[in-house]
Design brief:
With 523 residues, the protein is α/β, with parallel strands linked by helices. The chain contains 24 helices and 12 strands. The chain has 3 domains: 282 residues, HUPs (Rossmann fold); 53 residues; 84 residues, Arc Repressor Mutant, subunit A.
Length: 523
């Protein structure tokens, strides 16, 4: 353990860098509450967003790293802002008319459009928890509705009435003049309509801890700020939650970064200590635009897991969190293969390299062995040329290539074979286009087919790759990648593909000859 801790204290992997920064927070004395508290926030205004998973995954990686370098106990809270009013109807859910009738009501007061849970907020919370549980995260779930109504937030809310002017001064600086006229940090819940009201306060009573306001019809109301009668605007709520829970660490997207000084100051005014922050870059969709929960323009967790393993998604989340990344269907195969490359490298690495390896952080320091003797990209191409309708259609080729492999001994390969068939059917097959070879390419492919027909070297992928390489070189392809690109486009209907020698070894020499001859006859 000493060697591990020493190596972790010097590791440049970003989770260890963040863990060391957090440890400095308590270099003078341990936390009075007896633990370090990590928090992630979730806005359940739409179906669970894959970025929310990313926050929990990355926070867990930092938490694990912290537990290596410190003996201070830790907790992780996943906090759902489910008391927020539903400001707009998500485009990707049913019963739109019913939802429109419930606009501005807290999400936990909006009926579930799917008819499965007590409310829309409960539905989305359940979706989040189900997926977090799928990944085995250790977390505690907090509902804002319960937090406000149970009294856990009461002391901080009372303090907010007592320090109302100071809190308003912080917020008003960040608002346009027109917005300043009607703004209040408090949002009352209308006693009759149940809607979240965005109205100015006529009076804030710091002694009785009540607020007085007029509703949209001009009727005056006075409500206690405790017991779920009033909630805080989202920016003050952020900082107030930090103060109420004594949060030590929270990460959030770059779109929140300009608000960090506001969150921090709100926390401090309410008697808390601002937490350590980590700001990550946002995910982008196919067109390089920010992914939106309400638009549904990005991949969902369900969608990713339809085509690849949970670990591949964790790998994608680990990579360069401070760099904006395009998250679309075509990143999935790359993530799968890179994840297994790192798994294969791990056993032969020294401790420092292992701590820098993404799989250490994905698996909490204990990564499994990889049995992916065939890359995912290769499985996709195999599915393409064989027309396989299920994984059994691929296993005949896999067994010939790797005789010792079975679905039982290589479960990750078996799972990947099923994913590859599904991914090919849904994304590759509809878009692939085969082209005819030009005369130079035709001559080279005829040569390759002839040499393969005379091949007696077995199914060694590297030797076959050398053969393909030599054919391209002898036929004057410069750069040689043009030769391989021609093979992919003419034979596979794609602009890129696997190491072609490895593909021949997997698909079979005679089968590849037939593939080439068929393509040349077609063209």
């Amino acid at each position: 353990m000493t060697d591990l801790r020493d190596a972790a204290m010097n590791s440049k992997a970003w989770p260890f860098e963040e863990a060391r920064r957090l440890l400095k927070r308590y270099e003078k004395a341990p936390p009075e509450k007896g633990h370090v508290l990590f928090e992630t926030g979730y806005g359940p205004s739409g179906l669970p967003h894959i970025g929310t998973f990313g926050e929990v995954a990355r926070t867990t990686m930092i938490r694990t790293a912290f537990e290596v370098i410190s003996d201070i106990p830790t907790r992780l809270i996943c906090f759902s802002d489910d008391m927020d009013g539903m400001r707009k109807v998500p485009e990707n859910v049913p019963n739109q008319a019913m939802l429109r009738e419930n606009l501005q009501r807290p999400l936990t007061s909006v009926p579930d459009p799917f008819g499965e849970y007590d409310s829309f907020g409960d539905h989305n919370n359940a979706m989040l928890r189900r997926f977090l549980d799928t990944f085995g995260f250790a977390y505690e779930f907090y509902s804002a509705t319960e937090f406000y109504k149970s009294g856990q937030f009461d002391e901080v809310l009372k303090r907010a009435t007592e320090r109302y002017d100071d809190l308003m001064a912080v917020m008003l600086k960040s608002l346009r003049e027109e917005r300043q006229q009607t703004y209040s940090i408090f949002l009352p819940i209308h006693p009759e309509t149940g809607r979240v009201l965005y109205v100015p306060m006529k009076h804030v009573d710091a002694v009785n801890h009540t607020v007085t306001f007029d509703d949209e019809d001009g009727r005056e109301w006075t409500l206690p700020v405790t017991g779920g009668n009033v909630k805080l605007q989202w920016k003050p709520d952020f900082g107030a939650r930090w103060a109420a829970l004594d949060v030590d660490f929270e990460m959030y997207g770059k779109d929140h970064s300009t608000n960090t000084p506001i969150y921090d100051r709100i926390c401090e005014i309410l008697g808390g200590r601002k937490p350590e922050h980590f700001t990550y870059e946002l995910f982008l969709d196919e067109n390089g635009e920010k992914i939106s929960k309400s638009k549904g323009n990005g991949l969902t967790i369900d969608e990713w897991l339809t085509y690849a393993s949970t670990e591949s998604l964790s790998y994608f989340m680990f990579q360069k969190p401070k760099t904006a990344k395009r998250m679309w269907w075509d990143v999935i195969p790359k993530a799968v293969d890179e994840y297994h490359q790192q798994l294969r490298a791990f056993p032969d690495q020294d401790l420092a390299a292992q701590l820098a390896n993404p799989v250490w952080h994905i698996h909490g320091g204990n990564p499994p062995a990889s049995h992916m003797v065939v890359p995912f990209a290769m499985l996709l191409n195999l599915a393409s040329v064989t027309g396989a309708e299920d994984k059994a259609g691929l296993w005949g080729f896999i067994r010939r290539y790797a005789p010792d492999a079975t679905p039982e001994t290589h479960p990750d390969l078996d799972q990947a074979a099923a994913f590859a068939v599904r991914y090919f059917r849904d994304f590759v097959a509809p878009t692939r286009t085969f082209r005819a070879p030009d005369e130079k390419e035709r001559a080279a492919m005829q040569d390759l087919a002839a040499r393969l027909s005379a091949w007696d070297g077995g199914l060694d992928g590297e030797e076959l790759q050398s053969l393909v390489f030599a054919v391209g070189k002898e036929h004057g392809f410069e750069p040689l990648r043009d030769w391989f690109k021609a093979l992919y486009e003419v034979l596979l209907g794609a602009s890129q593909g696997p190491r072609f020698g490895g593909f021949i070894a997997l698909y079979g020499v005679a089968e590849t000859v037939s593939l080439i001859e068929g393509a040349l006859a077609r063209g």
